[in-house]
Amino acid sequence: MKIYGLTGSIGMGKSAVAAMFRRCGVPLFDADATVHALQGPGGAILPAIEARFPGTTGPQGVDRAKLGAAVFGHPHELRALEAIVHPAVQAARRMFLRRHRARGFVILDIPLLFEKHGERRLDGVIVVTAPAWKQRKRVLARPGMSAAKFRRIVRLQTPDAQKRRRADHIIHTGTTFTRTRAQVRALVACLGRKAGR
β-pairing, 105-109 with 57-58? Predict the structure, then answer.
């Protein structure tokens, strides 16, 4: 089984592309969705988070504002949180890979793939990209987003141009939905042939 990583900077359309891969029948592991489930109501890591950061969880799961305040600007606290979250996500990913081991290939949706050097353990990387003006327009349309916040997020991410240089495959979302979907379908066929399926 081949394992490919899917990544892209904020506002590039990665979530839409991930949904397209799923509709093509490709098994896809969503790291962000896994974290949300682990931290949501009844989430497996809530007791550990509450023990380390008292008062940051409740019946609805993690209180993101309170947890954010506890770790933002405090590298030691952030590392403590990551030590709780990352092993749980890795365990979920291992379970996903076992469940789909008979498939020719799978995709791991990992937003901070390059930032965390996750590409080393993959058979290839798919980068989702769009023009900078379109990225900015998409992100600033989100509730609670500001130009300053957008700039801060972008500064923390590997630049799009660098991601594209390091990619094995690129999906462009600066075009129509139909054309983006055609790119995804073509890539699924290509990866299927490489996997002998």
Answer: unpaired
Residue 169's φ and ψ, nearest 5 degrees, are -140, 145
In terms of residue numbers, what domain contains 10? Answer: 2-194
Q: In total, how many domains does the chain have?
A: 1
User: What is the C-alpha radius of gyration for the chain, rounded to an integer number of angstroms?
Assistant: 18
**Nearest-angstrom CA–CA distance, 20 and 79:** 34
Per-residue pLDDT reduced to its tens digit, 119-147:
888 999 999 999 999 999 999 999 989 99
β-pair partners for 129: 172
CB 4 within 8 A of CB 107: yes
Backbone angles phi, psi at 11, to 5 degrees: 80, 10
The CATH number of the domain holding residue 103 is: 3.40.50.300
**Single pTM value for the model:** 0.87
CA separation for the pair 118, 113 (Å, rounded): 5
For residue 83 the two structure tokens come to 């030590």
Within 100-144, residue ranges assigned H as helices are 132-140
Distance of CA 14 to the CA centre of its chain: 8
Q: pLDDT tens for residues 151-161?
A: 999 988 999 99
